[in-house]
Amino acid sequence: MKKPIALLGLLPLFILLAACGGPSNTNDGKTHVVAAFYPFAYIAEQVGGSFVDVQNLTSPGVEPHDLELKPKQVGAVLDADLVIFETGFQAAVDQAVKQANLSDRKKVDVSRLVTLKKTADELADQKAHGDVVEHNDEQDASRVDPHVWLDPVNMLKISRAVVSKLSAIDPAHADAYAANGAAFDTKLTALDSSFRRGLANCQRRQVVTSHAAFAYLAQRYGLQQVSIAGIDPNNEPSGSQLADIIELVERHHITTVFTEDLVSPRIADTIARDAKVRTATLSPIEGLTDKTEHDTYLTLMQQNLAAIQKANGCS
Questions:
Q1: Cα Rg of the chain (Å, integer)
Q2: DSSP-assigned letter for residue 297
């Protein structure tokens, strides 16, 4: 899933950017936050308000799994007051953070806040080998599920960590960060309640998705994720895997195969056509697009809830 990114050749550039103040040093008096991709940038904006300047490393329309950083973006990581990222999700960001040698005070590593779920491949290996499986670091990064933000309870944990970090970095505005964080917590708690109520009574619990991005959401609200691709949305299933998914759709009377904005719907459309069911969009909220540019994490999650309710006959 992760492309190896070689950043050692950019060290001279780091030094130059640091000497020049870097792209984030604009003397505007704000705390400069660099977020790896949209959900983390959204948290920073909600907590920081007018006292922070937030840079999202993943541009709208870019699949964050495949992110490659430009030298200027690497420099932004070096100069940031705070970097919010998740180790193991975006190799280019991991490398930039490592090269910048950031102190704990200047980073929020989401992988340290939330217990990451193992992928289906990792669980299968553990079962086959009696729970004793050794991997190197690169393998380990691809064998855990990074999509923690699709569980509002996890977003609460991240938000509170950002409040704490920003308050330490910029104590003059700590009260504002605390107030903003509390307001955002209220919205996330309400979102969690909406999902709990909205998915409590459904005719079916299976959700067929383009890629395996919804395990945290599924576990939180008692659903079963059935993914066409694995954690990497660019992987394609084998013919036998496709046949198994079509059989499952028919056996459980599933009405909908879910596609998403940043991944080709070709295979999902094929499954839906062969199983004679419809398709609909379920957003992994990895980034905004031209279609969703006026949406937010909260509105997209509400749209996801409505889509699952319709597909699964929830009342």
A1: 20
A2: H
